[in-house]
Amino acid sequence: MPEQTRNVTFKNVSKAFAGGVTAVDQVSLEIAGGSFVALVGSSGSGKSTLLKTVNRLIEPSTGEVLIGGASVRAGPAHLLRRRIGYVFQNVGLFPHMTAGENVAIGLKLAGERDTAARVSELLALVELPEDFATRIPDALSGGQRQRVGVARALACAPAIMLMDEPFGALDPVTHAGLGKAIRALHDRLGLTTIMVTHDMAEALLLADRVLVMAAGRIAADASPRDLLAGAGGAAADALLAVPREQAERLAELAR
Ligand code: ADP
Ligand code: MG
After folding, report:
1. How does strand 192-197 pair with strand 160-164?
2. Candidate of 15, 17, 162 to mutate for ligand 1, largest count of ligand atoms within 8 Å of Cβ
3. Residue nearest to atom 27 of ligand 1 (CA)
4. CA of 129 to the centre of ligand 2 (A)
5. Which contacts qualify for 124-127: CB closer than 8 Å, 24 or more apart?
6. Residue 90: what pLDDT?
7. Whose CA is closest to atom 26 on ligand 1?
8. Can you give the residue range of the structural domain that contains 61?
9. What is the mean pLDDT of residues 101-117?
10. How far apart are CA 101 and CA 82, in angstroms?
11. Ligand with smallest separation from the Cα of 17
């Protein structure tokens, strides 16, 4: 697919919730097709709200979101969502369905009957053994469950992946392994990925471009390298302080 058809554009997007909270405040951005962008910020800064305007789980109060130059509102939401993978924080697998059935949901909704081969392929893609297809989510570890969540999001071969704190409740080793796996899938499948995280270190290690959100606005927009060199200003520096100090202390310990 040509790069520009996978561009995601936010044009003056704002979202005010009933009750008066302006969760997203005049965001304008162009996300290049094929890029891996991290959306970082403290809790309540508007990251999830902004992300959900892409697949229309939230409709902006003003402004619009475009994919490949066309408004996301141009067609029915269910067709839009088939082109956009979505991985959410608490994974959200259906507990009474097997991993395979969870992965196949989108395919069934799209009218496919024979999903077994595609499910095997998807499990292989996220590096899970084929026989995990018959397990229920309770019989999987947190990391394995999130791999199933990623496989489900990839089922309809989307061009765009949205991930909302995909590593939320995972231990650090599982977290790092899954992060690398997701970045590798992004590269291999040529996806455009927008990943929400509150973890600046994760954003720096995985993304091509880091957007820092504060109070509904984009407070910084730079590559990991430029952010580390100070290009992000005060909002970014506050988030950079923790991983930077940890890295320095670890380097000292190793001396
Ligand atoms: P983040 O993902 O960065 O933690 P959110 O986008 O979830 O932030 O929320 C941004 C702000 O909007 C917060 O103040 C939150 O309480 C508010 N908010 C989010 N969803 C709703 C909603 N459905 N109704 C009212 N307020 C909401
Ligand atoms: Mg959130």
Report:
1. parallel
2. 17
3. 17
4. 31
5. 125/151, 125/154, 125/185, 126/150, 126/151, 126/154, 126/181, 126/185, 127/181
6. 72
7. 17
8. 1-75+192-255
9. 91
10. 17
11. 1
47, 239 in Cβ contact below 8 A? no
Q: 53: closest CA among 28, 90, 36, 35?
A: 28
Number of domains in the chain: 1
Burial class (CB in 10 A: 0-12, 13-18, 19+), 69: exposed
The 10s digit of each residue's pLDDT in 221-250 is 999 999 999 888 888 888 888 888 888 999
What CATH number is given to the structural domain containing 251?
Answer: 3.40.50.300
Structure tokens at 63: 């402004």
Work out the average pLDDT over 109-114: 87
How far apart are the C-alpha atoms of 93 and 71, rounded to whole Å? 30
φ/ψ of 197, rounded to 5, equals: -155, 155
Kindly state the tokens that stand for 49. 């709200």
Does any domain span residue 165? no
In a domain, 65, yes or no: yes
Q: Is the CB of 41 under 6 A from ligand 1?
A: yes
| Residue 110 falls inside a structural domain | no
242 is a domain residue: yes
